[in-house]
Amino acid sequence: MKFFSPEFMKKVKHNLKLWTRALVAVSLVAATILGNAHEAFAKRGGGSFGGSSFRSAPSRSAPSSGGYSGGGGSYYGGGGGGFFFLPMFFGGGSSLFSLLLLVIVAGVILQAFRGNGSGAGVTGMNSKVSVAKIQVGLLASARSLQQELTHLALESDTSSAEGIAGVARETALALIRHPEYWVYVSSANENTTFALAEQKFNGLVMSERSKLSAEVLRNVGGRLSQSKIAVALPSEANSKPEDPTEYIVVTMLVAVAGDTLSKLPVLRSSEELQSTLSVIGSVPTDNLLAIEVLWEPQSDDYTLTNDEMLTVYPDLIRI
After folding, report:
1. pTM of the model
2. Which pLDDT band holds residue 172 (cuts at 50, 70, 90)?
3. Which side of the chain, N or C, has fewer Cβ within a 10 Å radius?
4. SS3 of 53, please?
């Protein structure tokens, strides 16, 4: 049996040391890169919550029609004959009075379901709907707002009309309570028809969600999802000194029956912002068709720098 020479063994040991050092170096670099990626992911991670009642709006907002069955049946519990029970009820199909009454009733009901643009709920596909975006840049000192929005996202009922009305009300209140932190604002609104409103609202939502590098917390339509990197709410004892050049951005997207929001001014001052938030927070449940609230960063361990904020949200103007 032939043994390896001492020189050969010495060379093998030397090469093993080199490979070991190289592996350690590669591991450290990988850990640093992955750690920074995780940090960036968490820093730009946002939260969102809200809901929509577009599908149920016509049925819950249209005027009541007695015994209407909603599908081929008759009014007032009659069977199969639709409106034509009226002439029979008043004593014969040839009665001029009955025919006139039939025309009047049919016209009233058709007008109600077509919608007359009065803004009182959704009464038809041509009903007016306002779709609006309100965006606020706040100083990093408003970290308690991040915590409040996280609580709302975790606890809100986003699956019912009453629940999404509560989302609008509580989010508006959360912002109204922090006027001293308002620094930047932007707004936009559009008046459309109910037939097109959902598409326009969804387009706004997609545009704003795409600005987030990740959504670490999301509760929409009763479905809650939370990333593992979402940071738990800290106690007040863990609060840190704030950098005055860092910010938090909150976005509210709403769709409201009628043209109320289309009458709001383009926001350029704190007074206009406060007035607009009050209007959104007081929209009746039957008129609020959809809302989505987004904020970035979600975790109160992070904020956005001035450059990050104005790069991602270029429409913001200083107030």
Report:
1. 0.68
2. very high
3. N
4. coil
